[in-house]
Amino acid sequence: MSMTVGVIGGGQLARMMIPAAVNLGIEISVLAEGDDSSARLGATAVGDYRDADTVRTFAKSVGVVTFDHEHVPPHVLAELLSDGAKVRPGPHALTFAQDKIAMRTRLAELGVPIPGWTTATTPAEVDAFVTEYGGKAVAKTARGGYDGKGVRMISSSADVVDWLEALADGEQLLLEERVSFTRELAQLIARRPSGQTALWPVVETVQKDGVCAEVIAPAPGSAGAVSDMAAKIAVSIAEGLDVTGVLAVELFETDDERILVNELAMRPHNSGHWTIDGSTTSQFEQHLRAVLDLPLGATDMTAKFAVMVNVLGGPTEGMTSRLPAAMGNHPHAKIHAYGKEFRAGRKVGHVTVAGDDLDAVVAEARGAAENFSN
Ligand SMILES: Nc1ncnc2c1ncn2[C@@H]1O[C@H](COP(=O)(O)OP(=O)(O)OP(=O)(O)O)[C@@H](O)[C@H]1O
Ligand SMILES: [Mg+2]
């Protein structure tokens, strides 16, 4: 098999696969959305990922196809398979990261712990579910959500009339029990087509306004029961769904020490960015190894803790102008800028600090990220 990896989508995840590929001497091509995409430095093609001919032509130029995002339409993926392309993760797995209703249905079949849920198309169905769960619930669009878009906290059908009206034939809303979690966790796992798996320690993720803001690795106090449960869940999903590449399992931890699955991403994930600077093998290198069916790297941490803080929005003039101050004040911070233009709340970069004193690591990471806020 050709060692060229083709990545569909030119966001920061594709961008961060590039140095990993360069170090290993693996060719990488990116089908990017535009000349200004984050991964433009590795982009060999610019085109629309929804257009079957564009994607098929791109796939023919590489050995294995993988993804920066989960938005490639199913009919395009099916055409790639019929062309004989190696698509990893395969469409049969990816569908459960593309559609939250399909995901809930499949996880229920696998017996994985998940919040109470149903589907709805009418106000009466929404109100019945909300009443059943004590007057509050969460509504989600089945497809296309990211960074909290497509997720609403609701207390009646009045909160989703627009979504209900916009449903196309056959579409449904996902309704979930509003979990009163004590914290959110994420478990990352990589799996090769031949079956080998590797897991990083379970991490704590902190979201602000529905967007990931900080990640602490490992999740404090997770050694033992929590990490065992998270690992078991991730392995059963990776194997049960036949996922290849990196799989991120977003989790809720409850005060009665249960772990419930929120959602899945089948690609490197924001909760794993710390691995670049805090693990023997980064999630980006591991994803390349996994989709090429190469032996997976060790996932030990290089320090006791690693903390990642996202740069959201960033300075209007871009991150570069703030580098001198950030670097001068925070020599331990590893700064990652995605080359993206300012937009309020947008993920434009992140900072990671690794070390043995958690309080000091948190302070250094937050301090460094603060330099890039407006
Ligand atoms: N059932 C739930 N109960 C309580 N809070 C929830 C529930 N579902 C989602 N949330 C909150 O909303 C956030 C975003 O939800 P979810 O992860 O489903 O959305 P997304 O936009 O697809 O995610 P991402 O930001 O990972 O792209 C979660 O991280 C969590 O904080
Ligand atoms: Mg999420």
Automatic annotation (TrEMBL):
Pfam families: ATP-grasp, PurK_C, RS_preATP-grasp-like. One of its GO terms (biological process) is 'de novo' IMP biosynthetic process. GO terms for cellular component: cytosol. Residues 104-292 form the ATP-grasp domain. The keyword Ligase applies. Keywords: ATP-binding, Ligase, Nucleotide-binding, Purine biosynthesis. This is Unannotated protein. It comes from freshwater metagenome.
